[in-house]
Design a protein that fits this description.
By secondary structure, the chain is an alpha+beta fold. It is built from 28 helices and 38 strands. The strands form 11 sheets. Strands 5, 6, 29, 30, 31, 32 and 33 form a 7-stranded mixed β-sheet that branches. Strands 21, 22, 23, 26, 27 and 28 form a 6-stranded mixed β-sheet that branches. It has a 5-stranded antiparallel β-sheet with strand order 8-9-12-13-14, with helices on one face. A hairpin with an 8-residue loop joins strand 30 and strand 31.
């Protein structure tokens, strides 16, 4: 008969069994799959190592990795050994199977089935639980490093008199060990019980004893370990009361021991600890007594005690002792909470002073003169004018600006500092001529230059008054490296420095090319690196593209916040990184915080919620990057910079007393530079961070009081008002501006906010913090507390008044006719002579314009409101001053006023131009912006002519006066 099965190389050698060729193919594919997965994991590890080495923070990578590996193996092995030893011990203690019951006969088939694989089953089972336990432990690398490197706070809690470091660094690690011990004991107990049952040590339906003596002793010891751990848990719970959160009906969430904790829970935990220790000893005693009677009784007593002593007794104390006289009972403990919370959030030195809220000045003209001394009112809103910056200064479609610009201060040519709105012209890949891999990653790689404008002034037609503009950028910022390779909008990778040239910028002479000269990024010279990045970025072309050659480097992780978070994974990053020109380079400045959740008695806050406002609602990239969202201690302990060209990250120690930072500096030595290394030029651009300020203002809505009785009554709870200029319903953001508080002698760069009473719209307080680190008052929080006997309008009420006045409403209606849209800028509040001055810029975006222009300024003070074209005009009207009128006398004996015919003609031309502008705004089909812009230009020219003519006339008057004096002297 012919051979139907084929030869040795045929498709099958036996029925249903693959041939040798098929088996070889399957094995080969399996090996390739394993190698592919292995290389994928290696690529992730290798690219991470290369990146950390490129930014010179390889010690962060190695310390973090070695800690994770060490925890993984130590706790993974402990778990695997514990479970494995208990399974082996249970198997060894199995009874001889002589008389077989029906139950044992049923189990016998399972014993026979697993007999050949017992060793493999034991190894695989213990390996699995070891891997899970190791992975869980590796995630505790921060807890381990803080415990092993912790430094003392130098402060003790008021209950147990332990250093705060015990709660911040030690207690979290002890709780992890306790949790690991519970998990290990429970798994060992389950594994041992199953093994004893499988091999007859435990019986459910068989006649006779339910457990052998060996099984009883083994399981009793494990139960004794479990109860011992429970005793430890009771003991640690005593200290946990100092960081326990609870809710009060009147004051909301707060942390620390209350009366019931100190007088019921604390003694209950101590009693339960003692009972648990006795119960554990009874379980251990079964090694000799071989009976569970006493341990079971002891365990039942422990459970009953936990219900009665740990649950019922505190409830009785709360019901019959605390509630009838809550304020008296809780006051001492609330006082501890007040003190600890104010210390933990750095608000303990807050200066609270009373402020009348209404001015008593009779001469409002003098108040007008004091406005400029009190504040540099910023009418350029950085959250509104970004589109104007973009369409006026992006120059090319592939440049763009962040949605929210930043406020800084820069010196003018005269040496005076002024509030400045600044943004970088960053790369926007959505605007390049053609999107492809070469253009996206090789040709268009960076932005170019900074653009800045005065915050307190506006140019013609409502445009920003740019102090740094054009491409390349020129202006007040001087010479600096203008390429922006790292920025807030730079989220993709670029490959630079190789044979492919990059587009630098374009001007009238044409396109300029460049090649990156920095040492940032990772070189792609080696095939291994290219293959690793091809896998890591899922981009095969990186491996074989001819555009990559000698000198090519790949840049990624390019946003400032991402870079700082990567090199310092133990820091919480402020949501607003801002650029500054420092020492002829563009530096991104990033504020970073150290936090903990273990400060005793300090109330907790949720960073994500506390730092949210109308800006973060509209721009999620401004949200805080928190390592832990729930905290009860925070310090702005690090100032970081990221070079916009090289990407270099530098961390500077800012808070030299912070024990949390000192702990992390021990864990990662050499990563944080001393504060003394901060240059004078950089110091001039540092500021008080917004997110810390928002956390502090949220806490100060309740913790501005220092008296426990007032705190418990809830009568002085404030709230952060909703932003009246935004439809998101979110909190009003804090605003930077240069201003002078009543106790200050000069203006200081400050961060400000307002408060309203809980559930009401009127103003209850104004808060400002000195934000200039070059002053001795940096970080000093001042609160002006308004009287409760009278009401002062809050932001929402002021905005409502603006919109309800008929003249203003009519003008706004005219401005918003047709396709135009009115946009309100920041509503700024300034304390002035006992009262509060509100100022708000009003922008119009409409018609063919795709960006907002400043058209009006709203000002209110003392119940008087003005809505004028400029801030000066609005202030003049509010304070009853005729700003454009000449002085009532000039000291020459000549009548005041524009008697010079040239001045008179110029003023008449100005009036005509003004009238023409008003008519253009009232066109039937909507505002005629072209005619309005022409009228504004004519108005500006006429006013300039009048000013020049008046200056010339005044000069002639002075000359005449001088001649008269000379003649008189000669006569004498």
């Amino acid at each position: 008969m012919p051979d139907r099965g084929g030869g040795p190389t045929g498709p099958r050698t036996r029925a249903g069994r693959p041939s040798r060729r098929a088996r070889t193919l399957i094995v080969t594919l399996g090996v390739l799959a394993v190698l592919g997965m292995a290389f994928t994991m290696f690529a992730g590890f290798w690219t991470d190592w290369l990146w950390y080495r490129s930014v010179h923070y390889s010690s962060v990578f190695t310390t973090t990795l070695s800690t994770k590996i060490g925890l993984f193996f130590v706790f993974g092995l402990l778990m695997a050994l514990a479970v494995g030893v208990n399974v082996w011990l249970a198997h060894r203690l199995r009874p001889p199977l002589s008389a077989m019951s029906m139950e044992q006969q049923s189990l016998d088939r399972y014993r026979m089935a697993i007999a050949p694989y017992k060793r493999w089953l034991l190894l695989s089972g213990t390996s699995l639980v070891g891997l899970i336990a190791g992975a869980s432990a590796a995630g505790q690398w921060r807890t381990w490093l803080m415990w092993v490197n912790g430094v003392p706070f130098g402060q003790k809690d008021p209950q147990f008199h332990l250093d705060v470091s015990f709660y911040a660094f030690d207690l979290p690690w002890y709780r992890f060990l306790l949790g690991f011990g519970f998990a290990t004991t429970i798994l060992c107990l389950i594994a041992a019980a199953l093994t004893h049952y499988l091999y007859g040590g435990l019986r459910v339906t068989s006649p006779g004893a339910r457990a052998t003596a060996a099984a009883t002793g083994h399981l009793s010891v494990l139960l004794g370990v479990f109860v011992t751990l429970k005793a430890v848990a009771y003991w640690l719970d005593r200290y946990g009361l100092a960081v326990k959160s609870s809710d009060f009906k009147t004051t909301g969430n707060w942390t620390g021991l209350r009366y019931v904790d100190a007088n019921a829970y604390l003694p209950a935990k101590t009693i339960l600890f003692c009972i648990a220790v006795i119960c554990a000893l009874l379980f251990f005693a079964t090694l000799w007594r071989r009976t569970w009677q006493l341990p079971v009784i002891g365990f039942g007593l422990m459970v009953l005690s936990a219900i009665l002593i740990g649950g019922l007794y505190p409830a009785i104390v709360q019901k019959f002792q605390v509630q009838p006289n809550e304020q008296a009972k809780e006051a001492p403990y609330v006082q501890k909470n007040l003190t600890a919370t104010r210390e933990a959030y750095g608000i303990d030195d807050t200066q609270v002073s009373r402020y009348p809220g209404k001015s008593t000045a009779k001469d409002t003209g003098k108040l007008r003169d004091r406005v400029d001394e009190t504040a540099s009112i910023r009418i350029m809103d950085p959250n509104v004018v970004s589109p104007t910056f973009r369409l006026q200064q992006q120059i090319k479609g592939y440049y763009g600006f962040p949605a929210n610009l930043d406020v800084d201060r820069y010196a003018t040519k005269g040496g005076q500092e002024q509030d400045t709105v600044i943004g970088l012209r960053e790369l926007d890949l959505g605007g390049i001529p053609k999107n492809n891999w070469i253009n996206d990653h090789f040709r268009y790689t960076h932005g170019y230059g900074a653009v800045a404008a005065k915050g307190t002034a506006v140019a013609a037609e409502g445009l920003p008054m740019f102090t740094e503009k054009n491409l390349p950028s020129t202006g007040d910022l001087g010479e600096y490296r203008q390429q922006v390779y790292y920025g807030e909008k730079t989220t993709t990778y670029s490959i630079v420095g190789g044979p492919q040239k990059e587009v630098d910028y374009s001007d009238n002479a044409g396109e300029k090319n460049t090649s990156y000269q920095g040492r940032s990024g990772v070189d792609l010279d080696s095939t291994l690196n290219r293959a690793a990045y091809a896998v890591a970025f899922n981009e095969p072309q990186i491996l074989y593209s001819g555009a990559i050659g000698k000198g090519s480097r790949i840049l990624y992780n390019r946003t400032p916040k991402d870079r700082v978070e990567a090199v310092a994974p133990w820091l919480t990053i402020d949501g607003d990184a801002y650029p500054a020109v420092v020492n002829h380079r563009i530096q991104w400045i990033v504020d970073a915080y150290t936090t903990t959740n273990g400060y005793p008695y300090a109330s907790r806050t949720t960073l994500g919620d506390t730092t949210a406002d109308s800006q973060t609602a509209a721009n999620n990239s401004r949200a805080v990057v928190a390592q832990q969202n729930q905290v009860n201690y925070i310090r702005n302990s690090v100032k970081a910079t990221v070079d916009a060209y090289t990407g270099d990250v530098k961390l500077y120690q800012w808070d030299t007393k912070d024990p949390v930072l000192k702990t992390w500096m021990k864990a990662f030595p050499g990563t944080v530079k001393p504060r003394a290394d901060i240059s004078t030029d950089l110091m001039a651009h540092l500021r008080y961070p917004q997110d810390l300020f928002k956390v502090q203002r949220e806490l100060l809505t309740r913790y501005h009081v220092t008296n426990a009785q007032t705190f418990l009554s809830g009568s002085e709870v404030w709230t952060v008002p909703v932003d009246p200029t935004n439809d998101s319903g979110s909190a009003v953001p804090p605003y930077y501006l240069s201003m002078r508080m009543p106790d200050q002698s000069a203006q200081a760069f400050s961060l400000t906010t307002t408060f309203t009473p809980n559930g009401q719209a009127n103003l209850s307080a104004f808060m400002a913090v000195d934000s200039d680190p070059r002053t001795s008052d940096y970080g000093k929080i001042r609160i002006l507390k308004l009287p409760t006997s009278t009401t002062v309008d809050g932001p929402k009420q002021v905005q409502s008044q603006f919109n309800s006045e008929s003249d203003i409403a009519e003008t706004i209606s005219l401005l918003s006719r047709g396709h135009s849209k009115v946009e309100y800028g920041n509503l700024l509040t300034v304390p002035l002579d006992g009262g509060l001055l509100y100022a708000e810029p009003v922008y119009v975006r409409g018609g063919s314009l795709q960006y907002p222009l400043l058209r009006k300024v709203l000002v209110t003070y003392g119940g008087r409101t003005a809505f004028e074209d400029t801030l000066d005009e609005a202030l003049d009207k509010v304070f009853g001053v005729q700003g454009s009128a000449p002085p009532t006398g000039n000291g020459t004996g000549k009548p005041a006023g524009p008697t010079d015919p040239t001045v008179q003609r110029a003023l008449e031309d100005a009036q005509k131009a003004f009238d023409a502008g008003q008519l253009a705004m009232k066109e039937k089909d909507g505002p005629d912006w072209g005619a309005y812009a022409k009228a504004q230009r004519d108005l500006q020219e006429a006013l300039k002519s009048a000013q020049d003519a008046q200056t010339k006339a005044d000069k002639n008057d002075k000359t005449d006066n001088k001649s008269d004096k000379t003649d008189n002297k000669a006569k004498d």
